[in-house]
Amino acid sequence: IEEGIREVMGAIAHFPGTVDHILSEYTRVTTEGGRLSDVLSGYIDPDDGIAPPAAEVPPPVDAKAAKADDDTEDDDAEASTDDEDEVESGPDPIIAAQRFGAVSD
User: Fold this and answer.
1) What mean pLDDT is predicted for residues 61-70?
2) Could you read off the pLDDT of 34-54 as tens digits, one per residue?
3) Is 10 among the domain residues?
4) Measured CA angle at 5 (ends 101, 7), to 5 deg
5) How many structural domains are present in the chain?
6) Is residue 15 part of a domain?
7) Is 102 inside a domain boundary?
8) Engineered SS bond to 29: which of 18, 34, 37, 101, CB 3.0-4.6 Å?
9) DSSP string of 29-62, one letter each residue
């Protein structure tokens, strides 16, 4: 899968205007505000031959145990509303600035 993603990214990068468009979108997000994750989701290192770890699949849940847990989770959810603060996730802005700077040069 990763090899296929790299091939597609390489083909897109060689299409006329793609790199300029992505650079202009990055500039727009950094100057006008917005989420960096709207422009990119991550990086692919062409020298990295190691596949990223696969997402963990949760173990199957027993229906009776899940019902019992649901009753206790309602009480916990009412007691703690401070834990629901939204945290910005996505690419590191400092690394993005370095990489986009290298591409624009």
Assistant:
1) 55
2) 899 988 888 877 666 555 555
3) yes
4) 85
5) 1
6) yes
7) yes
8) 34
9) HHHH---GGGT-S----TT--SPPPPPPPPPP--
